[in-house]
Amino acid sequence: MAIFNKKEKVALDLQAISTLISEGSVLDGNLKAPAFARIDGTVNGNITVDEGLILGEKGLVKGNIVTKEIIVYGKVTGNINAASLEIRSTGNITGDIKTGVLQVEMGGVHNGSLSMAPVVAGKTIGEKAA
């Protein structure tokens, strides 16, 4: 019976994507998604994803991002607030970051301030509830 209560963490790259903004697509406005999202196009607006976000190599975000987990292969111009952030070698972030866990591959770029705090229940300590 205990087997049904056990939740194993699956890598963000392997999660089922519920929201996809494909390459060549442009979204002008804010995006809210309840689970996992992937952006390979352009979003001009703020993004809130409850679980996790993958920003593909061709992905471009001009706005702020709030999510639990994020992997950045593309470009972000805006602030990021996430429990866990990975900047891959092709990733480029211009803006402030608040995170509990940060991983940057060689070649990954961040221009802005960085604030790291322990994470409790998916939110960084000191973060106001929505």
Order of SSEs, N→C?
Answer: EEEEEEEEEEEEEEEE
Strand content: over 45%
The averaged pLDDT comes out at 86
Q: What would you call the shape? A: globular
Poorly predicted ranges (pLDDT <50, ≥5 residues)?
1-8
Q: How many strands in all? A: 16
Main structural class: mainly beta
**Cα distance spanning the termini:** 35 Å
Q: What is the share of helical residues?
A: under 10%
Number of helices: 0
Quick one: biggest sheet?
8 strands, parallel
Radius of gyration: 14 Å
Note the topology.
Blueprint: E1 19-21, E2 26-28, E3 31-33, E4 36-39, E5 42-44, E6 47-55, E7 60-62, E8 65-72, E9 75-77, E10 80-87, E11 92-94, E12 97-104, E13 109-111, E14 114-116, E15 119-120, E16 123-124
Parallel strand pairs: 1-4, 2-5, 3-6, 4-6, 5-7, 6-8, 7-9, 8-10, 9-11, 10-12, 11-13, 12-14
Antiparallel strand pairs: 15-16
Structure description:
It contains no helices and 16 strands. It is mostly beta strands and 130 residues long. The radius of gyration is 14 Å and the shape is globular.
Please tag this protein with its features:
mainly beta, 8-stranded parallel β-sheet, 6-stranded parallel β-sheet, 16 strands
